[in-house]
Amino acid sequence: MRFRRTALLASFLLLGTIARTGLCDSAADKATAREVATEGIKLFRDGKYEEALDRLKRAQALYDAPVHLLYIARTEEKLGQLVEASETYRTLDRETLPENAPEAWTSAVEDGRKELAALEPRLPKLTIALEPKDAPEPTVEIDGAKVPSAVLGIARPVNPGPHHIVVGATGYLPKAADVTSKEGAAENVTLALEPGAAPPTAPGAAPAPPTSEHSFVGFLGGIRLGAGIPTGKLFSIDTGAPQKRELDMTDAFQAGGGVELHAGVRIGKYFTPVLYVEGETLSPGKGFLDLGKISKATASSFGLGVIVGTPPGKIGGFGEFDVVFVNTYAVTFDEKRLGGATKSCDVSTRGGAIRFGGGGVFPLASWFQLTPVALATVGRFGTLDETGCAVVQDRSIPAGDQRTHAMVFLGLGGDVTLGRNR
Question: Reduced to 3 states, what is the DSSP secondary structure of residue 316?
Fold first, then answer.
């Protein structure tokens, strides 16, 4: 019922003021203003103050009516915009009503005066003082908005709540302060400026971008510890049988421990060309070709590649691709000789390969990061060498006998980043 009475009142006011000089230029504007005002008053009564303020201001823009101003002021007051509400009430108080003005208009002006008188004691006041008082060309900013420096030393009405103040002057460093204003309270803030070598940035202006301390080039070096897991084939060999025998990597090599050292130059934070050397001490395999028991098994590689990944100092990951120049595997046999004697026999095989993989990046300091890693070295052997073996001769492995092998390296690394590009 209350909303219906309010809607009828708004309709009466707008329809009964056709003769009044205002902003309304057409019947369509009047009708629109009436509908928007009715909607705004309902929103106000429902406690939807932000939406109500939007509708009421639109209605006032279409048609100047005291009731609009009264409800705009009431809505601003509900939103805590006491300064804005007080100015709207004063605008309403200055309204010049025609002699035949509706009674509701007269009531709106009278109600506005009473509500303004009740509101004024609630307005917080803020006084900002600057030291030194004679600082040249002072500037003042309140809540991100520039205000005239004439407010310095004068009580200024503000809305209740927190306020951020920044003051400055030519030849001084800016100074900031935060204050919370309460209804009816007066706050005094004094900011003492300190001399600065350069004029301060004007309040509200965007701060100058910080000068970068990073260079284009940085340096990286690290170590990785982990497990090497051989897989794939060594090569095929003619044993006189109808088909050549395939020698598995596991015949000679089993999993073991590995270590890698790497170093490189970081370019543009994301790309790092690196040189690396990797070595594994592997468990001996079961043996092959009746060469005797394997007592020692090792692997090593050397190459050049590139790491692409997260800049140092940030959690992330990386990928790596390397060209392996030298990839060598070696075993030592206890070769049986005539008469039952044994003698050490060393056999090694080598060839080219590629290595690829990646891992994570977890910085522990600005200059140090942990890097869990998984890498695979894939290639083929091309040369077979021996030292002290009676049954193995130095020779190249024919292309038809070459087989693909791999070494999977799983481990944890630590990288040190040097230079300003971290």
Answer: strand
Spell out where 99-144 has E strands: 125-131, 139-142
Rounded to two decimals, the pTM is 0.49
Residue 87 backbone zone (phi > 0: left; psi -120 to 50: alpha; other: beta)? alpha
Cα gap 244→229, rounded to integer Å: 25
Length of the chain equals 422
- Which pLDDT score, from 0 to 100, does residue 22 have? 42
Beta bridge partners of 164: 178
Rounded-to-5 percentages of helix, strand, coil across the chain: 25, 45, 30
53-68 confidence digits (pLDDT tens)? 999 899 888 888 888 8
In sequence order, the 6+-apart residues with CB closer than 8 A to the CB of 419 are 215, 217, 218, 219, 266
Pairwise CA distance, residues 90 & 70, whole Å? 10
The secondary structure of 317-375 as a DSSP string is EEEEEEEEEEEEEEEEEEEE-GGG-EEEEEEEEEEEEEEEEEEEEEEEETTEEEEEEEE
